[in-house]
Amino acid sequence: MAALAVSGLAFAGGLVPGSESAVSAQSGGNSISAADKAQGAKAHPELLAEFGGAVSGAQANYVERVGRTIAMQSGLGNAREDFTVTLLDSPVNNAFAIPGGYVYVTRQLSALMNNEAELAGVLGHEVGHVAARHSARRQSAAQKNQLLGVLGSVLSNVLLGDSMLGQLGQRIASTGSQLLTLKYSRSQEQEADRLGITYLQRAGYDPRAMATVLESLARQNALDASLKGSSTQVPEWASSHPDPASRVRDARKQAGSLTGRREAETFLAGIDGLVYGDNPEQGVIENGRFVHPKLRFAFDAPEGFYMVNGTRAVTISGGSGKAQFSGGKLEGSLEAYISGVFSSLSESNSTSLRPSQIERVTVNGLPAAYGVVRTRSSSGEVDVAVFAYDFGNGQAYHFVTMTKAGGAGVFNPMFRSLTRIGAQEAGEVRPRVIDVVTVKSGDTPALLSQRMAFSNAQLERFLVLNGMREGDPLPAGRKVKIVRYGT
Fold it and tell me: Which end of the chain is more exposed for a tag (fewer CB within 10 A), N or C?
């Protein structure tokens, strides 16, 4: 269970010409108010908890320096210290900012970039949202539409895709941080994109970097969708916004023939050694198996399903059903625990979900129990199941699954697979890390990609990670990224 994504990195192209907020944001007419600082300071620890915590050390210090440099171009702060820039320990591609001078980017998105200008562009885009007061407007709209309490993690929507049961994921700790990370409108994304490019120019960076990072994001999403067996997956940062191709075109059009510094080697040195993908401290997914070496358990997804690791839960998705795995305190019986999970789902969706009976079983030596409820959703009758396990010492873990009526059995292999693991299997789990290497004479993408710590799509992963296309030249002396196993 690692980090969730919020609706931050939703790049778009083009500013709304002549808009009042655009003029104010570009001229630095907004500043960080005392109220903004208080709001940001309150939400900051909640967001860190929600997104896997902060990375520390040289890599985080480098990202902070770049973030403060680009944030200063907005005119919001009078000093670099007015901005708090955080590298999040999250395996998802995302970035966002909140009022009060708080700016965030995940290590996964940072690893996808290939130069400092791209990093500055992403962070500048997010600062642009704050400069244009977008989150304040989204908060107002949410309050008017009574969305409070319904805005939990993005994971829940990915999990079910059904409004009736869209709150399986745990909510962000407070309504304040929920409101700060709302989705922006199409026009707001367009405005932030234009502002980000403006900030790049002011800082002396190559403004064309916005287009290249957008292209890398689109290609990474397409690769992820292909690996999961889908050709239609839409990334969180792209939902309800112009298609990736149009964003790239618009960014290139705005940048025009302008140039500037890109700082590729400085950037690569700054992220060398960064953890890539799941952090073993939060559990890892490998070939359809989730292993948590610290908590000492593992389970397998059903054949044909894929998993996504999140801060508080793991999601399991496939064509015949959706599921989520998480844990909680066991203060009474398993029956009471399961009833509590159903009760929570009922409260979140104003729907009564009560199993007629709860069955006791034993799974790999673990006391377990389950209940199933049949109910109606927007897509017809569905079965919602809760399968829970007693791990002792007051700790329980459980699956929540949803399938079409009569289809709950598709998850039986997964239910039966949950097991404790020993020290040997736990010790075999290693992190993947970014390793910056220098291309030697005779090296090719195909040759270098064989060093990638993946069992599939090695070449495709290498090309996307390095912003390359098949057939691109790879001269000796160039530095590139590979993903290897760490220690």
Answer: C
If DSSP codes are grouped into helix, strand and coil, which group holds residue 205? strand
In a domain, 4, yes or no: no
CA angle 181, 149, 332 (to 5 degrees): 115
C-beta separation of 459 from 449 below 8 A: yes
Annotate 394-432 with DSSP letters as a single string.
TEEEEEEEEEETT-GGGGHHHHHH-EE--HHHHHT---E
Give the residue from 327, 385, 403 showing the smallest Cα distance to 162.
Answer: 403
Give bridge partners of residue 299 from the DSSP assignment. 290
β-sheet bridge partners, residue 373: 384
Cβ atoms of 314 and 414 within 8 Å: the answer is no
Six-digit token string for 293 = 């070496």
User: Is the same domain home to 266 and 300?
Assistant: no
For residue 423, what are the CA distances in angstroms to 291, 299, 416, 426, 428?
Answer: 12, 16, 21, 5, 9
Segment 378-405, tens digit of pLDDT: 778 999 999 999 999 999 999 999 999 9
What phi and psi values does residue 315 have, to the nearest 5 degrees?
-100, 145
Residues comprising the chain, all counted: 487
**261: which DSSP letter?**
B
What are the φ and ψ backbone dihedral angles of 380, each rounded to 5 degrees?
Answer: 115, -165
Assess whether 147 and 245 both reside in one domain. yes
Nearest CA-CA partner of 321 in 371, 383, 374: 383
Are the CB atoms for 391 and 334 separated by under 8 Å? no
Comparing 26 with 164, the larger pLDDT belongs to 26
Q: Does residue 136 register a pLDDT over 80? A: no
Q: Within its chain, how far is the Cα of 177 from the centroid?
A: 16
Beta bridge partners of 377: 380
**C-beta of residue 357 within 8 angstroms of C-beta of residue 342:** no
CA atoms within 13 A on the CB side of 395: 9
Where is 224: in which H helix or E strand?
helix 209-227
CATH value at residue 364? 3.40.1000.10
Residue 157, both tokens: 């929507």
pTM of the model: 0.80
Question: Is-contact 76 130, C-beta < 8 A?
Answer: yes
Q: Which of 16-20, 325-329, 393-397, 420-424 is least confident?
A: 16-20
Looking at the structure, do residues 339 and 250 belong to the same domain, yes or no?
Answer: no
CA dist 404 and 100 (Å) reads 45
Domain that residue 228 falls in: 20-276
What CA–CA distance (Å, rounded) separates 390 from 342?
17
